[in-house]
Write the structure tokens for this entry.
Amino acid sequence: MQKIINRKCQGCNGVFPREKLIKITLSGGTLHINPTSKILGRSMYLCPDIKCIKTAIKKKRIYSALKFKNFDEISSLEKELLNPFGKLNV
């Protein structure tokens, strides 16, 4: 029997199984969306919900959770999260 690992979403503060969340990892000074968990480093989790992503951006939880202050890198990650396929209008 496999143990279910839960993580906390930084947007809504809900606790969900790790497989249902988006993992963002800071490794070597760059941010990665890390679906396979193969990149090691400081990480945070977000629900794949637009409201949670916008809340995390608005309340600057990406900055504080990752302890990372490179605003250009974070803004490009935010654009990628909010518009992954070019179909979502923010």
User: Anything to note?
Assistant: The first helix runs from residue 50 to 58.
